[in-house]
Amino acid sequence: MKMKVRSNDFTYKGPALRIAAQQIRPGANHLRAAKYLQGQLHTIGIESTIDLVEASHLSSSENLAKYDLFVCGILLGEDRLLSLLATLQSTLYTIYPTVDDRTKKIIDKKVREIRLSQEESIRWIKYFEIEEMLKSMHAIFFLNHRFHAVYEPEDSPYEGVQLDSNGRVDYRKVWRRWDNKYRI
């Protein structure tokens, strides 16, 4: 989503916004996304600074008080909905600790409804209701659903091609099948 170019009717006169970009491990962070957000803010006349913050410290009370915006991501497990529900209510992430008590009660109620529902489609509908509510409250911005996939032809001579927990192929585990069909 692109922000509109600066309007002459709007002028932000406050201090520069502080953006925390999640540092997952050295070299793996959300700095690029934070810089994109910073550029969008600059376009509409809002200055900002960016700090890399260790993922394990992101939702500390000190950092929640220090930063205005958080740019971070989550890795979903096999059961994506269960991972999302755990994230919504976790104090390790920045969503739940930053919303007011009324919103926490709504989230908790919807999550209970999701857990009690037998119908998968109803569960997802209720989850997206929570997500829409959080977006409308500006508790989450630029929410992006993305996943990693690897496409391998059925007749590929390679075996062991699968994604690791970081969404990368571990090439040390890939091997080439040796049979007459694939001789070079």
Order of helices and strands: EEHEHEHHHHEE
Overall number of strands = 6
Strand content: 5-15%
Detail the poorly predicted runs: none
Sum up the overall morphology in one term. Answer: globular
Provide mean pLDDT, rounded: 84
List the helices and strands and how they pair.
Elements: E1 17-25, E2 28-29, H1 31-43, E3 48-54, H2 61-66, E4 69-71, H3 80-89, H4 95-98, H5 101-116, H6 120-136, E5 158-159, E6 175-176
Describe the structure.
With 184 residues, this protein is of the alpha/beta class. The chain has a domain at 1-73. Helix content is 36%, strand content 14%. The model has no long low-confidence stretch (mean pLDDT 84).
Brief synopsis:
The protein is α/β, with parallel strands linked by helices and 184 residues long.
